[in-house]
Specification:
mainly beta; 22-stranded antiparallel β-barrel; 58 strands
């Protein structure tokens, strides 16, 4: 640890501004402030040697202690740790901490992957113990800070708003603490503590992956002034992270099935055009989907009236490479390939794998081409190389703090934070229309004139009639998003001290206001350009659109260029547009406390705290008028309503610290902490929480600590007031659509197939090829749960032991935690809802099965999903159990001063029960939930030189047990052949290295290093393994996406 850093920490114990920033709620979690410590640590005369690690002023206390003498499990991470590792933002630093790394975190990259993430595109949040970011309370200098972001789901604190250059350290309290901090502190509390006092500096950092893209630039400066009555400090920070696209790494290219035969050879479909295994795990594009309802019955002269497998959706693909004719047959009006549909030259049917079903009627003409038709389907497009995996983020921040002593007893203080974040992503999507053609015998063809003009026709057979629905599905890169969030937070207050009776007393009164003002711009397509012109029988030239009142353009949906994403200027102007929406979130808090030591017990002074808190929150998310009017097309008309609401919270709380026993055999000291809180939330009602903490030093070297307490969390504003959102869900996501094919291809379990076959939602159940996987969209309704949601409640238990031997500068702690959360507020993805219903052993009585309907006989067409209701609700239960390990060791060796820090976490359980009656499911060891994570950091300091080596560990994960539970019948097959799936990931070690040098006389320091020294790539799994993938590679917050990365830091102090 640098001398400057140590001086700053020592000075913080005396500086009013720092302490007033910290003398909010956290004071009661530790000790009552006093010139004499309440006996939670050994008395100075008898204390064990002070650890050489970061001995700091723990949040809310004037006592210096380290994480090992804290009565609650705690980790302290300094900004200097981040610099050693080449980390440039606080989100990356905290998400790698072992209290968080054992579960999936919302990184900037995953904010792109997730649908409607909390805070919107680019938001970065922190979830301790895997319980969700909304259950981790983030404080800034000991006080609440309002959330930031865009969209209706703004709630958790966005770590983007705090620049790492302004941070001194972060304290992570790793147990439930609602009795101390109020709602949201279920999984723990993260207190970000900013730098204070004098000193001026300029800093420059640059990070560059070896293979390019995702470069980071940070420039910051600070100026601070001490004067007799106080201090003032101001810092500015600029941060830029360049966009990282899918095409920037070859291991994200082309999502294959990645299936193997028992002999170890690949079993994937083969694409002879690429001379490689087919891309199958991306968005299918550029096809004309047809729903051919030709009459079945008597055979024509060649023995075929209608291809049996055309009763479901067929897909026609244009031959862009000029090679399909070598491998496939077209549909023509002549033998040997007669069909009701006749496609124009260059188009070929693909993907007719249902011919290969054991129950399928043989097709001697197209059957030999069926397997090739799978490998030749177009799933990967050049647009996909340009989609964003990690968005471009640009941030500018100003941080100010100061204090002024009115007299010896009263100090005024203030803080201000201003932050602007701009985030951009590029995407792609499908757009499609529905049209039809009809012909009776050899009469004229009715329906879409554009289809006929493009060469799509029907057979002329006097004995037959044919009608076909066309759904040409084009790909487009008009799917980008831009977000700008302006964040303001100001704090003002006063604090002081006085003597009353036999004790010294401190008081603090503060007010905090924060405002997040966000704008999000989205590329969209218009309902009045697509839906309004479906099922057309004439051209529209010369008319104007219903909503926008613009000239109508006859779009050639059947053009190969159009389906490839090449549009004319007129088509782009007609179909495309942008919407602009806004989100404002405001939070105001007023809090105060009085703490002191009113009397003494034989073992020491008693510390007490009494306090109050008032908080008001409001949200106003106003979508663009086109969203409100249901005029944005996303698979059909899509709607977002205005999300607006307010809430008020009032609370009183108290804590008492009792030193019970001291200096008797077996008890060096024994302290008990009791705390309680009464909270009244306007939208919910009132509740009480408590916490009991025990700190028992058996000897000066060995301490046992334990706690038990309750917490609760009232629903967030977005969970209460989210306005009804109407969206579309593609039938391809229906587990029962083409379930026979999906089972054959390993995409669903046997249980799902059996439940689809016997689905009571549709009379007689659903046939293996009855439902199409394309085109028809279900309607999804999502809204908040105001009036129906209740608050979450939880119980938390911890017990641990701390060893600080006097023969070495060594501290070791082991802590067990157990959190049970009841009535968790949440919602699941629509895909998950459907899949878990049909995969449930309680089907059809699982509560999830009550949340959707199907079209019934008499509706057109019968069977597909109709309405899906996916509102916020109280999920039954969630559990989290595990063990934390932490050790610090410092010693002098011949080559310099050696410091070693080890942090590790073993997750024992991460379980969830969705609804009463649903099965309990333990996700421990699954994707994104490794059983073990760990960080080992070693620093060697010799004069002006500092060398660092860090190792980050992620244990193996596996979906094998879950997959085999749902698929008990082996061997697994694909296209009627036995296959083996890759359902697990290996352990991963990431290494970081840096070397720094300080020119003390010049006030200059430099550091250069490498992250991911050995260039570890993300693990690879099969498409049906249950992991989120891009290409064949897993994307989870535990895995590095960028590869080997170089960094350099330069600093100049004045």
């Amino acid at each position: 640890m640098s001398a400057g850093y140590s001086r700053r920490l020592r000075r913080s114990a005396a500086m009013g501004a720092m302490l007033t920033a910290l003398t909010g709620l956290p004071v009661w979690a530790q000790e009552a402030p006093s010139a004499e410590p309440v006996a939670q640590t050994p008395p100075p005369a008898e204390a064990a040697p002070a650890p050489s690690g970061d001995v700091i002023t723990v949040t809310g206390s004037r006592l210096k202690m380290d994480t090992f003498s804290s009565p609650s499990p705690m980790s302290v991470v300094s900004a200097e740790d981040a610099q050693l590792e080449g980390v440039q933002d606080i989100a990356s630093l905290l998400q790698q901490n072992t209290a968080a790394a054992g579960s999936s975190q919302v990184t900037a990259a995953l904010s792109v992957a997730l649908a409607n993430p909390q805070g919107g595109l680019g938001a970065q949040t922190l979830s301790l113990r895997g319980l969700g970011a909304q259950r981790t309370l983030v404080l800034l200098n000991g006080r609440r800070a309002g959330p930031a972001g865009v969209g209706g789901a703004v709630g958790p604190f966005d770590l983007n708003v705090v620049p790492l250059s302004a941070v001194e350290r972060v304290e992570i309290l790793k147990d439930g603490a609602s009795s101390l901090y109020g709602s949201d502190a279920i999984a723990g509390v993260v207190n970000i503590i900013t730098k204070t006092g004098s000193g001026s500096s300029l800093d420059f950092s640059y990070t560059a992956p070896e293979q390019g893209a995702a470069e980071e630039l940070q420039i910051s400066g600070t100026w601070g002034l001490d004067f007799d009555q106080g201090y003032f400090r101001i810092s500015g920070d600029y941060f830029l992270q360049k966009e990282f696209d899918r095409g920037d790494r070859d291991y994200f290219f082309c999502g294959q099935l990645y299936y193997f035969r028992p002999d170890g050879t690949r079993a994937d479909p083969y694409d002879p055009r690429r001379k490689d295994y087919a891309c199958r795990d991306d968005v299918i594009w550029g096809h004309n989907w047809t729903y051919d309802y030709g009459e079945n019955g008597a055979s024509d002269k060649n023995g075929f009236r209608h291809r049996p497998w055309q009763n479901t959706a067929g897909r026609y693909q244009y031959d862009y490479s000029g090679q399909l004719a070598q491998y496939l047959l077209p549909f023509t009006n002549a033998f040997p390939a007669p069909s009701g549909i006749i496609n124009p030259p260059g188009w070929y049917p693909v993907g007719y794998s249902n011919i290969l079903l054991s129950s399928a009627k043989p097709d001697p003409i197209f059957g030999p081409y069926a397997k090739a038709s799978i490998g030749l389907e177009d799933f990967y497009h050049p647009f996909m190389n340009d989609i964003t995996l990690s968005p471009e983020i640009e941030r500018a921040s100003v941080v100010m703090s100061g204090e002024y002593d009115l007299n010896d007893d009263v100090t005024l203080y203030g803080e201000a934070l201003l932050n602007r974040r701009s985030t951009r992503e590029d995407g792609y999507s499908q757009i499609y229309t529905f049209q039809y053609q009809y012909r009776s015998g050899n009469g004229p063809i009715f329906g879409d004139p554009m289809a006929l003009a493009a060469g799509w026709s029907l057979r002329d057979d006097s004995m037959d009639y044919y009608y076909v629905f066309h759904s040409p599905t084009a790909i487009t890169d008009h799917a980008d998003s831009d977000v700008q969030v302006d964040y303001l937070r100001v704090v003002g207050g006063a604090k002081g001290e006085f003597t009353f009776g036999a004790g010294d007393w401190d008081w603090d009164l503060s007010a905090q206001f924060s405002r997040s003002d966000g704008t999000y711009v989205e590329a969209v397509h218009w309902v009045d350009a697509i839906t309004d012109y479906e099922m057309q029988t004439s051209l529209c030239a010369g008319t104007t659109t219903r909503y926008r009142k613009v000239p109508c353009v006859d779009v050639n949906w059947y053009s190969p260029d159009f389906n490839y994403g090449k549009r004319t200027a007129a088509e782009k102007a007609f179909l495309e547009g942008y919407t602009t929406s806004t989100t404002v979130y405001e939070q105001t808090t007023l809090e105060g406390y009085l703490s002191g030591q009113p009397f003494s017990l034989p073992a020491g002074k008693v510390g007490t705290v009494l306090g109050f808190q008032y908080q008001e929150d409001s949200i106003a998310d106003v979508p663009d008028k086109a969203w409100i009017d249901k005029e944005v097309w996303s698979g059909g008309p899509t709607q977002r309503g205005i999300t607006a609401g307010t809430d008020e919270t009032r609370a009183i709380y108290g804590e008492i610290s009792l030193p019970l026993i001291k200096n008797v055999p077996g008890i060096y000291d024994l302290n008990v902490n009791l705390s309680g809180r009464w909270t009244d939330v306007k939208s919910y009602g009132d509740d009480t929480t408590y916490k009991v903490g025990l700190s028992w030093a058996i000897t000066p070297d060995i301490r046992v600590r334990a706690s038990q307490g309750t917490s609760f969390r009232a629903p967030s504003l977005y969970e209460l007031y989210l306005a009804q959102q109407v969206s579309r869900f593609a039938q391809s996501g229906d587990p029962c659509a083409q379930w026979g094919v999906k089972l054959q291809q390993g995409q669903i379990t046997q249980r799902i197939a059996d439940n689809c076959r016997n689905d009571p939602k549709f009379p007689g159940g659903i046939g293996p090829t009855q439902l199409s996987t394309g085109g028809i969209q279900a309607t999804v309704y999502t809204s908040g749960g105001f009036g129906t949601l209740s608050a979450e409640t939880s119980e938390s238990k911890t017990i641990g032991v701390v060893w600080t031997p006097d023969f070495a500068d060594l501290q070791i702690s082991v802590d067990y935690y157990d959190i049970f959360l009841d009535g968790q507020v949440g919602r699941v993805s629509t895909s998950y809802l459907l899949r878990e219903c049909y995969n449930s052993p309680n089907f059809p009585n699982d509560p999830l099965c009550k949340l959707f309907t199907r079209k019934q006989p008499g509706e057109s067409p019968p069977g597909p999903l109709k309405d899906i209701y996916n509102n916020y609700l109280n999920i039954a239960a969630q559990t989290s159990r595990g063990v934390d390990f932490e050790a610090q060791y410092s010693t002098d060796i011949p080559w310099g001063d050696l410091d070693i820090t080890l942090r590790a976490a073993r997750q024992l359980e991460s379980g969830e029960q969705l609804l009463p009656g649903s099965p309990f499911e333990d996700d421990n060891g699954w994707a994104g939930e490794p059983e073990w994570v760990g960080n080992l950091n070693t620093t060697l300091t010799r004069g002006p030189w500092t060398a660092f080596w860090g190792v980050r560990y992620v244990s193996p994960t596996s979906q094998v047990e879950d997959f085999e539970k749902d698929n008990p019948t082996k061997p697994y097959t694909y296209l009627n052949q036995p296959v083996v799936y890759v359902l697990d990931t290996p352990e991963v070690f990431y290494h970081s290295l840096s070397i720094g040098y300080e020119w003390e006389d010049l006030g200059v320091s430099a550091r250069a290093g490498v992250r991911n020294v050995f260039d570890k790539k993300p693990p690879i799994v099969s498409a049906n393994a249950g992991y989120y993938r891009q290409g064949n590679s897993v994307i989870e917050s535990q895995y590095d996406l960028f590869g080997r990365t170089f960094f350099v830091n330069l600093s100049k102090t004045f």
